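ugh ok fine here u go
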Amino acid sequence: MMAWVAVAAAAVSALGSIKQGQSAQTAANYNAAQTRADADASTAAAKVQAQKIRQQGARQASQATSAFGASGVETDTGTALRVTSGIAGDAEQDAYTTILNGVNNANRMRAQAQADVIGGQQAKQAGMISGGSSLLNSGSQYYSGWKR
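structure:
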């Protein structure tokens, strides 16, 4: 009778190990999904910020053009053109850098999400191995006790 109790305890232990591994995988998959969503949000936020930078650059270039025009300087040639073109170029470079930083950040997040998924798979596998090992160990002890 006591042998069956030991077998039942081993089965419960094995089931617990398997369930723990499955739960760890579920949590890892959830974390991965959240991280991927954060990555998408990072990319979108970078694009919005880049657009704001471009708009600010256009406003500054327009203000410079207006100031040159008010001073009687021709705005479509020479220094005035170089200044306004420089403002627009700098704004575009800043916007591009912002997008690039957002994409790089998103790529790091996606890599972390993939690592989370792999970690979850490994946790599930470890739970299965631990559960199987528990059953085999119990079976071995039962057989050894029965053999005596």
